[in-house]
């Protein structure tokens, strides 16, 4: 009986640690922009798009955007922050949230810079869209 209890305890421990903690939408977007403003903005775009926070559909749209910029020999505009420059003192403000979708505002330089939409896919929050202020 004791061996069975120990077995269940060990099995439960491994199952619990293998799943780890699931990030909330707010944590996902905050962690991503913290990384991006500290390191990501300095990387080549293909490296940035390897980040796990992007949905496959958004990654594809960003790839098309960056390829067009390269083809047209344009530069300077950053679709991640929706601007040419960025502020590492950004703020993320929640707008709305359901179990499958969350929307946040990205604030930089004291004003709203973008709206960031995340979708929950298989218990993982993924950035699915970033739109500039209109």
Architecture overview:
This protein has 134 residues and is of the alpha+beta class. It has a 4-stranded antiparallel sheet with strand order 1-2-3-4. It is globular. The chain contains 4 helices and 4 strands, in the order ααααββββ. The protein has helices at residues 2-19, 25-38, 45-48, 56-71, and strands at 91-97, 101-108, 111-121, 124-132. Residues 5-18 have low confidence and may be disordered.
- The total beta strand count reads 4
What percentage of the residues does DSSP assign to strands (E)? 25-35%
Largest sheet: 4 strands, antiparallel
Averaged pLDDT: 85
Q: Please count the helical segments.
A: 4
Question: Could you list the spans in which at least 5 consecutive residues all have pLDDT below 50?
Answer: 5-18
Helix content class: 25-40%
* Strand order in space, largest sheet: 1-2-3-4
* Radius of gyration (Å): 19 Å
Terminal CA distance: 66 Å
- Structural class, by secondary structure, is alpha+beta
H-E order: HHHHEEEE
Shape, principal axes of CA atoms: globular
Strand-helix topology:
Elements: H1 2-19, H2 25-38, H3 45-48, H4 56-71, E1 91-97, E2 101-108, E3 111-121, E4 124-132
Antiparallel strand pairs: 1-2, 2-3, 3-4
Task: Give a nutshell description of this structure.
This protein has 134 residues and is an alpha+beta fold.
Task: Provide keyphrases for this structure.
134 residues, alpha+beta, 4 helices, 26% strand, globular
């Amino acid at each position: 009986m004791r061996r069975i209890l120990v077995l269940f305890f060990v099995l439960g421990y491994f199952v619990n640690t293998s799943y780890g903690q699931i990030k909330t939408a707010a944590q996902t977007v905050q962690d991503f922009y913290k990384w991006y403003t500290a390191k990501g903005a300095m990387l080549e775009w293909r490296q940035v798009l390897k980040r796990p926070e992007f949905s496959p559909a958004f990654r594809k749209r960003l790839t098309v955007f960056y390829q067009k910029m390269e083809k047209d020999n344009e530069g300077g505009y950053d679709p991640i922050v929706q601007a040419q420059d960025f502020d590492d003192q950004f703020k993320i403000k929640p707008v709305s949230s359901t179990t499958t979708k969350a929307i946040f505002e990205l604030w930089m330089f004291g004003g709203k810079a973008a709206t960031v939409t995340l979708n929950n896919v298989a218990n993982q929050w993924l950035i699915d869209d970033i739109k500039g202020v209109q």
